[in-house]
From TrEMBL:
Name of the protein this chain belongs to: Glutamate--tRNA ligase
Residues that span the membrane, as ranges: none
Assembly and interaction partners: Monomer.
Superkingdom in the source lineage: Bacteria
Motif ('HIGH' region): 16-26
Gene: gltX
Enzyme Commission designation: 6.1.1.17
GO biological processes: glutamyl-tRNA aminoacylation
Lineage, highest ranks first: Bacteria, Candidatus Niyogiibacteriota
Function, in words: Catalyzes the attachment of glutamate to tRNA(Glu) in a two-step reaction: glutamate is first activated by ATP to form Glu-AMP and then transferred to the acceptor end of tRNA(Glu).
Binding residues for ATP: K245
PROSITE patterns in the record: AA_TRNA_LIGASE_I
Amino acid sequence: MLKEKGAKKIRTRIAPSPTGPMHAGTARSALFNFIFAKQHGGDFVLRIEDTDLERSDTIFEKDIRESLEWLGLDWDEFYRQSERADIYEKYLKNLLDAGLIFWCPHSEEDLAKERQEQMSRKEAMKHVCSHRNKTGAMDDKKGILRFKNNFSKEISFNDLVRGDISFDSGILGDFSIAKNLRTPLYNFAVVIDDREMAITHVIRGEDHISNTPKQILLQNALDFPRPLYAHLPLILGLDRSKLSKRHGAKSVLEYRKTGYLPEALLNFLILLGWHPAPDKDGREKEIFTKKEMLQEFSLNKVQKGGAVFTIDKLNWLNRTFIKNLNQADFSERLLPFTEDLAEKINENHDKWSKVLSLTKERLTTLDEIGDMAEIFYKDPFYPKELLFWKEGQSAENIVRHLRHIHAYLSGTNSWNKKDLEDGIAEYSKKEGRGETLWPFRVALSGKRHSAGPFEIAEILGKEESVKRIEKAIKMFE
RNA sequence: GGCCCUAUCGUCUAGUGGCCUAGGACGUGGCCUUCUCAAGGCCAAAACACGGGUUCGAUUCCCGUUGGGGCUACCA
C-alpha cells in the first residue's frame, strides 16, 4: 500500500497484561494490529502491561510470547512496563509541579462509601477530591495520585470504526492515575507509553472506549499528540457477554495443543468482525492466507456489533486448511501428535505416507490422528456385532463372505487397491456390496467409521490383512 | 444507578435509498455418490427487533422504544 509522502510511519501495539494465558480476544486484537501495521509498512509493538505486580506473572508473559510466535504475529519491538518506572516518575513529577495532578488521601473505604451514596442518589459515581487544589509537596507515603479534572467540558474523538464518540468529561471526576510516583495505573501508563513508543493507531477492544476520554484528558494535559483510535467489537460467548474463561474459552496455546492450525485460527479470528467486499463477480471469500489478509484488510470494513465465538466454523476452517496441506507439511505438523507412533513410523516411512493420504481429509483437528492411524499399527479390538452390516445380516453370510475374501486375498500376488477391488468386484456385486464389503472393512479396521477396505488392505499388506480376516472368522467359531 | 457502544437467517456476515423475490459462509435437513465415515455435487428451511418520521420510495437516513453489551477500582 502506498504511503503518503512525509507521513509518519504507522506503529501499532498489542498491550496485554500477563495475568492469564492469552485468549482469543487478545489474539484477534494482536492480529488486527499486526495486519494494519504491516499492510502500511509499519511496526507492530508488543508491550507487556505488568504494572500490577500482584496479578502479573512471568509465566503468562511467556504464554503470551509463545502464542504470538505460534500465530506468526512477530513483533518489531518489545517493552515491559515494570521496567519503565523512571519514565513514569519523570512525567508524574512534572505534572505535580504543574499542579495538574494531586495527592488524594482518601481511603478505599471512604471512596466505597461515597460511591454507595452516589449510586443511591442516582448520580454518576465519581470522586471529586477535596484535596484537588492542595498543590506542592505532600507526604507521598499516603494516598494516590489523581488527575485534576476541569469539568464541564465535552471531550470527543473520531473512532475509525465507529465515527464520532463524545463524553461529558465531568462525570469522570478526579480519576486515579498512579499509586505512587513509581507505580502508575493503567490509564496513565498507556498514555505515556503510547507517546514514548510513537504509537500512531490504537486498535483495541470496545471495552476500552470508556477509558479513551481519560487518556485524552491526560494527553491534553501533557501536550501529547493524540493517536488515532479504532475500537473493535468484542468477541462474545454463547450468552453474548464478553468471552471469558467462564464460557470455557480456550487459550491460544490450548488450540495449538488440540491440533488447530495457526492459519485456521487466524482466518477464523479475522472473520469475527471483519469481512471484505465481494469480488467483481460477487463471490465472497472465506479462506484467507496471511498475504491475502494483508492485501484486503481495512479498518472501515470492521463490524460494530459484537461477534459470538462458535467453534463450528473454526472446525470447518481447520479441516479445510488441513486438507490443503501438502504431504510433507502435514506430516511435520503431525509430529507433536504422533509421538506414540514415532518408532513405527520410522520403521516404514512409505507406509506412513500412505496412512497420511488416507487420513488427511478426515481430520478436523490434528489430535485425532492417533485414533485414526492406530488401525494400521495395532491389532484391532472390536465387538463381534460390529461385523454385521445391517440388523438382518446372518452370521453364516458374514463368514461365507469373509472366507471368500480370505481365499482371494491369500491367492493373489497383485497387491494394490485397484487390483484388489477388481478381484473382488464380481463377487461383491453378486452378493451385494454392503453385504460383503462392510464385514471386510470392519475386519480390517475394527471401526464403525474408517477409510475403505481396499485402501486399508493395500497399506496393511497381504500378511496382515489375511491375518485380520482370519481373526474375524474365528469370532464365529 | 450513571455514562458509552450496539442491533440483517441459529452463528459469522454482504448490503451505504430503488439492482432485495435481502446474497454468501458455517451449522441444520433432504437428495445424489456410497460398504461406513470424510470429502464432493445438488436442493431446502432460516433474518432486516418495534414504533414514529424524512422521501415518490426505506434493511439502508433521523428520532424514540425495546433488547444486547461494555465501563463505572489504589485491575488492565
